[in-house]
Write a structure and sequence with these properties.
It is a single chain. By secondary structure, the protein is an alpha/beta fold. Helix content is about 30%, strand content about 20%. The chain has 16 helices and 25 strands. The strands form five sheets. It has a nine-stranded mixed beta sheet with strand order 9-8-10-11-18-17-16-13-14, with helices on both faces. It has a seven-stranded parallel beta sheet with strand order 1-2-3-4-5-6-7, with helices on one face. A hairpin with an 8-residue loop joins strand 16 and strand 17. Helix 7 runs antiparallel to helix 12. The two termini are about 40 Å apart. The model has no long low-confidence stretch (mean pLDDT about 95).
Length: about 650
């Protein structure tokens, strides 16, 4: 590792049975040796809590700690993520092992930080154990206070679901009902599970904090946009990290070789989301080094792709990348999962060779780093906050209304078109100050309240440019339709008198006219009646509402609100509308093809090529090219500094 230029490693995330092979019997000698070897060769260590894998003695002695599937089967010991966050007994044993580990390494100078658990999330399995059922009732009682309030919020009188007390309530389970579960109960299930996960992580952070040195930081690694993970709820760590594998056969990428590179939003959106969570910094704790073993199919990454992914994290402001894994294992469940080192324990894998190259290139970038660099005014003028909330994701994915609706593809469509403008994007929560951004977009922001609308209104009146899209504001925070016209809270803000929505069959496309150009749609269409003084930018040109508004634009105070009511397959309409928002605000944009990424970070411009074709990047003649060239092969990287940036500081 040291010879390769690696600066740190991380240990022990699955090693509870080696630390405590029998209850009360602790062995850290093997781990002490590993930490000492790291110190000897100049590596720092991230120590991990081993809580995703309880030892067999704990599972067998106390089987009540195990989670239960929706079919009633208790998950057996083995594998990982099989213990219930809701089990007080399990939490007691977690507190014990985490405390002992923290006391043992909390003042070791080789240990620079701590990772809590590993990808906490039960891998999408909902825990229906009695532990979880009991905690869910407590959670509901704390939220609603009385059973009458729960019944009212859930609309329980419909289909005679009314409960007499909290003890009668169970976690909604699709296996236990003949039809879809109550949508309000499902929303609460997702919120409860996210709170249980966050509570489990936050609890461990608090334990560590009591025992470790103040210079040791605390994080956890999450799978982005994955139930029941909600990064906003995890707030006791110093910062968050994420895990990402891009080449697993789950998407075809861009062009004939795209399946070997993945899609840029997988890293880009995660960078821009995690950078804006606790601590305002982030890293990537697991990044793919080569072939994996668990994909739909497992292709070899394109030569250069591993390097490109690392540079994408760098471009997004990441502080570090940790590859998973160092050596390909000879046995166990991940035998076919590549490492930086092949099965002989000596030979570098292709991905390992790329990491060696990166460690050398980073020396050059560190030498050119200027801590006084500030984002150029031209880029800063394009900055946009993209408002994202897992509550909206949960609610719309459960009630899609059309089988063509997909929440994240809708959001990614806007994210990708903004990136094609070379606009700096921050994926933010409602905790952020909107006034930091000249532009703000809230794609399909279905659940809201009057306070959020008030904040949006103030933002616009003070000169901000707000973009809203279909489905926004249809429901309150508990997923209840307003006792008012559809999406009533945003009507005055957006300049709407009324709206309704339409869907079309898979094989039929409606038409829209925007600036004399024709666009096709069939996913979702909000049909808008604008208020007086609102500009109509696009109209439907067929169906029974021919001539009705599809896109409207409203000036309010010093700023503007644009409502895009239609969701298309190709996103061409949405891209042209958002470009016009920028143009009318007097802000220039670029026009990068999908798959070409251009970012600015700490004085460096970084361009990446996720497409299967050679791309020519426009670099000013006076710029200093530090890595690569303007001619980008597939999976290519170029890094440069522009002397003209000095005039923007």
């Amino acid at each position: 590792m040291s010879e390769m230029g690696i600066k740190f490693t991380h240990f022990a995330e699955f090693a509870w049975s080696m630390m405590e092979p029998e209850e009360g019997e602790y062995h850290f000698e093997w781990l002490d040796r590993a930490v000492s070897l790291a110190e000897k060769y100049g590596l720092k260590v991230i120590m991990c809590t081993p809580t995703p894998t309880p030892p067999v003695w704990l599972s067998k002695k106390y089987p009540d700690i195990l989670i239960q599937r929706d079919n009633g089967v208790t998950i057996q010991h083995g594998r990982r993520q099989h213990a219930s966050w809701s089990s007080d007994r399990y939490r007691h044993y977690v507190e014990n092992i985490v405390s002992r580990l923290a006391i043992h390494y909390g003042n070791n100078p080789t240990v620079i930080g701590w990772q809590i658990d590993n990808e906490p999330g039960h891998y999408g399995v909902v825990d229906y154990s009695e532990n979880a059922q009991a905690k869910f009732r407590i959670w509901l009682q704390k939220k609603y206070g009385t059973i009458d309030k729960l019944n009212d919020t859930w609309g329980a009188s419909f289909w005679s679901e009314t409960y007499q007390n909290f003890e009668q309530v169970r976690l909604p389970n699709q296996q236990e009902v003949p039809d879809k579960a109550n949508p309000h109960a499902m929303l609460d299930l997702n919120r409860f599970m996210a709170d249980e996960l966050a509570g489990f992580v936050n609890m461990q952070a608090d334990i560590l904090r009591r025992h470790i040195h103040k210079d040791q930081w605390i994080t956890t690694n999450l799978i982005p946009v994955f139930n029941p993970v909600d990064p906003v709820r995890i707030d006791h760590t110093d910062f968050l990290t994420y895990t990402r594998y891009l080449v697993t056969g789950h998407n075809q990428g861009i062009g004939s070789q795209g399946f070997r590179m993945g899609i840029p939003e997988d890293l880009g959106f995660s960078n821009d989301q995690f950078r804006n969570r606790v601590g305002k910094t982030f890293g990537v704790m697991e990044l793919q080094p080569g072939q994996v073993n668990w994909g739909v199919y497992n292709p070899q990454p394109l030569p250069g792709a591993v390097r490109m992914w690392v540079y994408h994290v760098f471009a997004g402001g990441g502080k570090f990348v940790c590859n998973y894994r160092f050596r390909q294992p000879l046995k166990g469940s991940e035998q076919y999962h590549y490492g930086m080192i092949m099965t002989d324990g000596v030979t570098l894998s292709p991905g390992g060779e790329e990491y060696v190259r990166i460690t050398q290139e980073m020396k050059k970038l560190r030498a050119a780093y200027d801590k006084k660099s500030r984002m150029p005014k031209q880029l800063a003028s394009r900055r946009i906050g993209l408002l994202f909330d897992m509550n909206n994701y949960w609610e719309m994915e459960f009630q899609r209304q059309t089988d063509q609706w997909r929440t994240m593809p809708h959001i990614h469509k806007y994210y990708n078109l903004l990136k094609s403008f070379a606009a700096p994007v921050d994926v933010i929560s409602e905790k952020e100050d909107f006034s930091d951004y000249p532009f703000l977009i809230a794609p399909a922001y279905q659940l809201l309240d009057n306070n959020l609308v008030k904040r949006w209104t103030e933002y616009v009146k003070n000169g901000g440019h707000l973009i809203l899209t279909c489905r926004t504001g249809q429901k309150d925070r508990d997923a209840k339709l307003w006792e008012a016209p559809l999406a009533a809270p945003i009507h005055q803000l957006a300049g709407i008198n009324s709206l309704y929505y339409d869907h079309l069959p898979h094989n039929l496309y409606g038409k829209i006219d925007f600036e004399g150009k024709e666009f096709a749609w069939n996913n979702w269409g909000d049909v808008l009646t604008p208020a007086a003084g609102t500009d109509v930018w696009a109209v439907y040109t067929d169906q029974f509402y021919k001539g009705a508004a599809s896109v409207i634009h409203h000036k309010l105070g010093k700023g503007t609100v644009t409502y895009i009511g239609t969701d298309t397959d190709d996103g061409k309409l949405e891209k042209e509308v958002v470009r016009r928002v920028y143009t009318e605000a007097g802000v220039s944009t670029e026009d990068l093809p999908y798959g070409v990424v251009k970012e600015w970070r700490d004085g460096f411009y970084i361009a990446l090529n996720y497409t299967s074709d050679i791309q020519e990047i426009v670099i000013p003649d006076e710029a200093e090219v530090l890595i690569g060239s303007a001619r980008l092969e597939p999976a290519g990287v170029v890094v440069w500094k522009e002397k003209s940036d000095n005039k923007y500081k």
